[in-house]
Design a protein that fits this description.
Length: about 625
């Protein structure tokens, strides 16, 4: 197949979309403050008083209504059991929110709370010696829900509960339950037997192990903090289960800046999801808040990872009136101390609230540039191929630079007014990048990331990279080669053996994404005999050669490339440089492949460089 001009034009936007999607994390620095609680273990909550001065004890679950009022459950102490729901207004005052169930506090516990956007009710999970149930609390009193199901909540335990579009989602006894508008409860995940199994299959046949938090995204996918399995899992709208973050059954801390499915968590006990699909995790055993970005990478956004300073200064739990007991307020959240963080919830402005249980406080994260630093910094080994996320980078290919303080303002992407004729912009709002003092075309930047096209005329050797911003200059180096092929990827998949891999950024000829719907909504697998379009960068010169830093016509590659699927090597139907730094490969999918299998995919040069490992093509 020959690439026609029309065919190329139709995929340019798709290719640039993949460049953004596979590279741009939503990373911004989080600043931490306290919105409720003075750290004292002695309960003292004056109705209508300042929340910041109240003595709240052991807050463990919380939620936010559509007007950004905060609601939380206060556990109390062994001498003063509470388990009531409190409301913190946007003005910062605290008050009792709803009338709790009628039994006295020693005979029941409110284990979870969920608030509808209207804020006129609270849904609660109640563990009681008189029977466990889910109820709606409002001005009319208490209404029990899902009464066709026998709930088995732990007394004084942790239960997941959220409401979304009129439905109630409950984590109960190693199952995930959905209560519909008809008030009936239905199992959507779990067998009721604790354990780990089922990824890639029906969620109702999967095993969970003490799930204690749930969240629901805008599409209706359910995220579960599978606490005793030390991972966060996803139940799709098709009721297929997969792992979003963590190495299930293996506790620990690792993986920041890499694929979330390769990271380790420790007893996650809170989960929230933003409108853009970003998932926030309360990594309780690690005393951290982690974030899974839409591109599948994970990072720590709050907590130093321990409940005391390295030099032994205690946390609030040990010495509640120590001046430094909950160190960090007003500063960068990754330098703060969290102590057993549990529930998390987002408000409409994207602020994240944390039940900092053992610090007896509710903390809040706001996101933006680092407030205390403006000098840019390039991260160690932070310059990588924009598709493979490894060094080296290639002449004319896209590169990604990771670091901090690249801007103190909003993210920026080039637009038509930034071009000078056919020349791509090399400076945007005072931000620029050079390789061995040669200007690089600049496509995008935010506070922690820059996407650039590597300029021409560089040696196959280590080159010096400079990032210049209004706040200063950062200098680092990276290995450069004429050819360093990489395939853009779009989704992370976890295999049955616990390893993870990626699907390529590829489309069918009708524009639909290549993938499995259980992993990538709206996609479908490749079929033997069809042609799919695969995108990459760093594949070297075209014929005739095209310069970097300019808008270019589409041209075929100068060297013969090969398409390898699970060890079988063929030639693509066409291979071309279709826009600056972006390559398209028209690949004929072989017939005779096993349906339902994902095959290792590489594109490279006969006897030479190949694209990265870990990219698999799903076959129907």
């Amino acid at each position: 197949m020959v690439l026609t001009r029309r065919g190329i034009t139709s995929v340019v936007r798709i290719g640039l979309f993949f460049l953004l999607l596979s590279q741009i994390a939503t990373s911004q620095t989080a600043t931490i403050t306290t919105v409720a609680g003075n750290g004292s273990p002695i309960q003292n909550i004056p109705n209508g008083g300042p929340a910041i001065s109240a003595g709240i004890t052991g807050p463990f679950d919380l939620d936010v209504d559509g007007q950004n009022n905060l609601y939380f459950i206060n556990a109390g102490s062994i001498f003063d059991v509470d388990f009531r729901i409190y409301r913190v207004s946007q003005a910062g005052t605290i008050s009792l929110a709803f009338t709790s169930p009628s039994q006295i506090s020693l005979t029941y516990s409110v284990d979870a709370v969920a608030i509808p956007t209207t804020g006129d009710a609270a849904y609660v999970a109640v563990a009681s010696v008189f029977g466990n149930y889910v109820a709606r609390l409002d001005s009319k009193g208490q209404t029990k829900l899902g009464t066709n199901w026998a709930f088995k909540f732990p007394f004084y335990g942790r239960v997941g509960l959220r409401t979304h579009n009129g439905l109630i989602y409950v984590a109960d006894n190693n199952r995930i339950i959905r209560i519909g508008s008809d008030n009936n409860a239905t199992v959507i995940g779990g067998t009721g037997v604790g354990g780990y199994s089922g990824d890639g299959g029906a969620a109702t046949q999967a095993q969970f192990n003490s799930p204690n938090a749930v969240a629901v995204d805008a599409s209706g996918n359910v995220f579960v903090a599978d606490s005793a399995n030390h991972c966060v899992r996803k139940i799709s709208t098709a009721l297929v289960v997969s792992t979003l973050a963590g190495t299930c059954t293996k506790a620990g801390f690792s993986g920041d800046t890499g694929p979330a499915t390769a990271a380790k968590l420790s007893g996650p006990s809170g989960v929230a999801v933003g409108l853009d699909g970003t998932v926030y995790i309360s990594d309780t055993g690690n005393n951290r808040i982690r974030r899974v970005n839409p591109n599948g990478t994970i990072e720590t956004i709050a907590g130093i990872g321990q409940a005391t300073f390295p030099n032994g200064v205690p946390s609030c739990f040990d010495d509640p009136f120590s001046p430094n007991c909950f160190f960090g307020d007003g500063g960068v959240a990754t330098r703060a101390i969290l102590n057993g963080p549990l529930g998390v919830a987002l408000d409409s402005q994207g602020r994240l609230y944390i039940a900092d249980e053992k610090n007896n406080r509710i903390r809040m994260l706001t996101f933006g540039p680092n407030p205390s630093a403006t000098t840019p910094l390039i991260a160690d080994k932070g310059i990588v191929n924009g598709a493979s996320f490894t060094a080296p980078v290639a002449r004319g290919g896209w590169a990604t630079i990771y670091g901090s303080n690249f801007t103190t303002g909003a993210a920026r992407i080039w637009n038509s007014s930034d071009f000078s004729g056919n020349n791509l912009p090399t400076s945007l709002d005072g931000v620029s990048v050079t390789f061995n003092d040669k200007p690089a075309a600049l496509y995008f930047f935010n506070a922690t990331q820059i996407n650039v096209q590597v300029p021409d005329g560089l040696p196959d050797a280590e080159v010096t990279v400079k990032v210049t911003t209004p706040g200063g200059t950062a200098v680092s180096g990276v290995l450069h080669q004429a050819i360093a092929p990489g395939l853009f990827t779009i989704a992370q998949v976890k295999a049955s053996d616990g390893t993870s891999y990626s699907y390529p950024a590829a489309v069918h000829l009708d524009g639909a994404l290549v993938g499995r719907p259980s992993v990538l909504q709206g996609s479908r697998p490749a079929t033997g005999g069809e042609i799919i379009l695969v995108f990459g960068t760093g594949f070297g010169p075209s014929n005739p050669p095209q310069p970097s830093g300019m808008l270019i016509p589409s041209t075929l590659l100068n060297s013969l490339v090969t398409f390898t699927l699970s060890g079988n090597q063929t030639l693509p139907q066409a291979a071309a440089l279709i826009s600056p730094g972006l390559y398209q490969f028209n690949v004929l999918v072989p017939t005779g492949l096993k349906s339902g299998t994902d095959y290792l995919l590489q594109i490279g040069f006969l006897g030479g460089a190949q694209s990265q490992q870990g990219v698999y093509l799903p076959i129907n």
